[in-house]
Design brief:
Blueprint (H helix, E strand, L loop, with lengths): L1 H19 L3 H8 L4 H42 L13 E3 L2 H16 L1 H4 L4 E3 L9 E14 L4 E15 L22 E14 L10 E12 L7 E12 L10 H48 L5 H5 L4 H24 L6 H17 L1 H5 L7 H35 L9 H12 L4 H6 L6 H43 L5 H7 L3 H7 L10 H4 L13
Antiparallel strand pairs: 1-7, 2-5, 3-4, 3-5, 5-6, 6-7
Helix pairs in contact: 1-6, 3-6, 3-9, 6-8, 8-9, 11-12, 11-14
Amino acid sequence: MAHLDSEVKEECLREDLKFYFMNPCEKYRARHQIPWKLGLQILKIVMVTTQLVRFGLSNQMVVAFKEENTVAFKHLFLKGYSGTDEDDYSCSVYTQEDAYESVFFAINQYRHLKNISLGTLGYGENEDNTIGLKVCKQHYKKGTMFPSNETLNIDSDIEIDCVHLDLSKSPQDSWKNSSFFRLEFYRLLQVEISFHLKGIDLQTIHSRELPDCYVFQNTITFDNKAHSGKIKIYFDSDAKIEECKDLNISGSIQKNTQYVLVFDAFVIVICLASLILCTRSIVLALRLRKRFLNFFLEKYKRHVCNADQWEFINGWYVLVIISDLMTIIGSILKMEIKAKNLTNYDLCSILLGTSTLFVWVGVIRYLGYFQAYNVLILTMQASLPKVLRFCACAGMIYLGYTFCGWIVLGPYHDKFEDLNTVAECLFSLVNGDDMFATFAHIQQKSVLVWLFSRLYLYSFISLFIYMILSLFIALITDSYDTIKKYQQNGFPETDLQEFLKECSSSSKEKYQKESSAFLSCVCCLRRRGSDDHLILVN
């Protein structure tokens, strides 16, 4: 009797395992179970993609408004701005007269802003809740310098002096006579002009959306830290979106906003249902794995290998759960932004964009049910460990070249000025991009550095393109060939697969005439109603 119970228990476990590893089509043929998760994922793809496209178009208008205002500010406040930044700075001056004129020009333009600006701009309050300009200068505390005699006497302590200009109250150009604007350039480090402006983005009205109100925190910096005879002028504008205090817009904008909020709420409901179903499947899979591990240890007196244990953890479900969480959070942020309660467009776009990426990547799971489309997934799974180990070794060489190029070539080449730029330049060289320009732009002021640059670039390109990149491709090709052979000759069987192949004699006799395509569903057709709670929905 105990032996019979053991066989029934084993057969029940085998049936549950077979049903768990069926695809949705096999489950439907076996029990006419409707693949709710499959239909839900298809609906979610359409909904999430539509939501992302609508938000992307809105976000583009926000970014375009910020960038266009920054360009307009540079033309308004920077004297002689050509429309193109010289490098990482906007423009530069080389004489004391030009420096004074540039400072005074920015202040005067701020004074007459409402009469000259084409935008919907107004004055904003600074950090101290006052309207006006704040001008600060940094300079060494004291000192004397005589370059002709090669003598220097200077106190390296830095002083910061600031003055607030309320141009609406001060007489015309009276501030120019202030001693504050008498600059001693030999000890001057920088002059910083900061002011706040407010604006309203009206272009959103054409898209039937409520307009946004902006606060632009602008800073003009005259950098003389190098004391090289060239003062670099930087312009920085940090735009922040704030809730408009009083909006009175007639038309159908408010009604359109309500429709969008309802659509976003429906997306949240869809993702929440998908999250619940996938979480339930993972929990039931862990229970089934525990039953299998206990049975295998009890019958065969040994533990199941790690590969078989990981078979119960469906990585696609984990990906869907992460995607659903990001979509739910992103949709809530989007609804708050639409209602003008929040203004964090960047975080919302990252969440919605990444979740949409994961949703579309998850489609590969359903293509993987067909052998012709499953090669990519299997090749990636087989090659990933070897590729990661290979990249770890190649990364050490890459970092070595990065630091070397930054130290040696940084002063002579624009693409090697900082570590981030060096890494991007070398990655472009690995992909065969911009090779000639990288060779040609090296300054030939030092023959030794020029010769080193040739040795550096030729060795890097030869090593990474002809050797490391070829080995990288070979690793993936080897995994691909292995998978193709397995598909032709059969994959190596694990303990779990051998256990699933076994079937009771009664099952074989009852279903030996069934087609081979239907054999995977045999044991599930014999389930009892009392065992329905053991079935795992995959």
